[in-house]
Specification:
single chain, alpha/beta, Spore Coat Polysaccharide Biosynthesis Protein SpsA, Chain A, 2 domains, 9-stranded mixed beta sheet, 17 helices, 52% helix, elongated
């Protein structure tokens, strides 16, 4: 059987990357029948290249939008009911990658579709090997396996802080039957990131799938300086929090919020003043009673009404968070409760809170600078003697940037329109 593939490529102002990709696709040992370029660039450069470049594989150009500055924001504001008169003022603007991918699949002419990004280059045997894997394992979908390349010093630090040298399961590089994709399994639209993760979870729940053990694709477009990286991770985390994924991350931020509450709320009356109109009687007792009621009602809702117990991962994360919260709260109040603030007491520990916080920060730094990179196959010879410091600092900076992005995403989630 000779499979007929359409390759779908979303693009946005990345002409040079698209040229490299087209050359790579033309070098495949199993040639696809067409390349569908779903473009929402601000200029016509992609269209001109698609129509003029020499290619054995036919290129189908599809305009899915035209980017301009703040286009998505302006379109959203103008769509609000209070701005009805401005609704026709702004054109559609850019399509997010998932929206462009969905449009490209609908445009595709052949039975099978394969996904690529303009910045993700497959090896020459990618399509042929994937077809053999799909037949060998009798599955419906084969996911992409992508490694991230780094050339500059900063890119190498960034790779060590994030992706490492291992292959990652990705939507780019995946193959699926067109009818299966369009039959209720399109990628979530209206978000900039997280949609591919949600799509893979949906596919895993609906089809038989396979992930190759070796990497077939390379991503070589990592940012070359820190500001674009911080912006990217902020935006991606914001949209990632909108999508129903990253449950461990959400549990971690919930735990952090509880820890801060445990520190601030018992001291609230001291902070605002005992004679202040903001004084709240028995605030600590009320707080703990509320926490107990929330936990109890959650378990009751899950078991008695919804008929299910929390899964094992939830319980594991819950108890880990509970233990960490108890330890943090105990240390914070150690000198007050145990030593009674008597400095001569054998139980009194000077600066215990500062020591605890510093220990956590140091452990986080060592985790981000040494353990995490080694886990993701970064050579120890690269990390030592000093690169691990830069890797750890960048990793913690990314964590700090992701926090407000996540919180902002959680706040605006009810107002974001998402669709499949």
């Amino acid at each position: 059987m000779n499979p007929r593939f359409s390759i779908v490529v979303p693009t946005l102002d990345n002409v040079d990357d698209l040229k490299k990709l087209i050359i790579s696709v033309n070098s495949q040992t199993l040639l696809p029948r067409e390349i569908v370029v779903a473009d929402s660039s601000s200029s016509n450069d992609i269209q001109e290249i698609s129509q003029s470049i020499s290619s054995i594989v036919p290129i189908v150009y599809l305009r899915v939008g035209r980017a301009y500055r703040y286009d998505r924001l302006l379109r959203y504001i103008s769509s609000l009911s209070i701005f009805l008169k401005a609704q026709t003022k702004y054109p559609a603007g850019r399509a997010f990658p998932y929206e462009a991918t969905n449009a490209g699949v609908r445009k595709a002419s052949f039975e099978w579709v394969a996904f690529l990004d303009a910045t993700t280059i497959p090896i020459n045997s990618w399509l042929e090997d994937y077809w053999h894997l799909l037949c060998l394992h009798e599955c419906d979908v084969v996911f992409g396996n992508t490694t991230y390349c780094a050339d500059t010093k900063f890119q190498k630090i960034l790779r060590a802080s994030t992706y490492g040298c291992i292959g990652h399961e990705t939507a780019p590089g995946s193959i699926i039957k067109k009818t299966d994709f369009l039959n209720g399994h399109e990628i979530l639209e209206g978000v900039r990131s997280g949609g591919d993760v949600a799509w893979k979870n949906d596919i895993k729940a609906s089809f038989k799938y396979f992930l190759p053990a070796t990497s077939y694709l390379k991503y070589s477009n990592l940012s070359k300086n820190i500001l674009p990286v911080l912006k990217k991770f902020f935006v991606y985390q914001m949209y990632g929090s909108i999508v129903d994924i990253q449950h461990n991350v959400k549990n971690a931020y919930l735990g952090l919020a509880i820890i801060l509450s445990l520190i601030i709320i018992p001291k609230w009356n001291y902070i605002v003043g005992w004679d202040s109109h903001l004084f709240i009687p028995h605030i600590t007792k009320v707080f703990f009673i509320c926490i107990l009621l929330i936990i109890s009602s959650s378990f009751f809702l899950n078991r008695a009404i919804l008929g299910r117990l929390p899964n094992k991962n939830f319980l594991t994360n819950f108890f880990r968070a509970a233990i960490f919260i108890i330890i943090s709260y105990s240390i914070y109040n150690w000198n007050a409760v145990v030593a009674k603030w008597v400095e001569d007491s054998i139980w009194y520990i000077p600066h215990i809170t500062k020591i605890f916080v510093f220990s956590i920060l140091l452990a986080s730094f060592l985790y981000r600078g040494i353990y995490f990179p080694i886990k993701y196959k970064i050579e120890l010879t690269y990390l030592l003697p000093f690169n691990w410091i830069a890797v750890g600092a960048l990793g913690m900076a990314l964590d700090l940037v992701k926090a407000p992005g996540y919180l902002l995403g959680a706040i605006v989630a009810p107002f974001i329109k998402r669709s499949k």
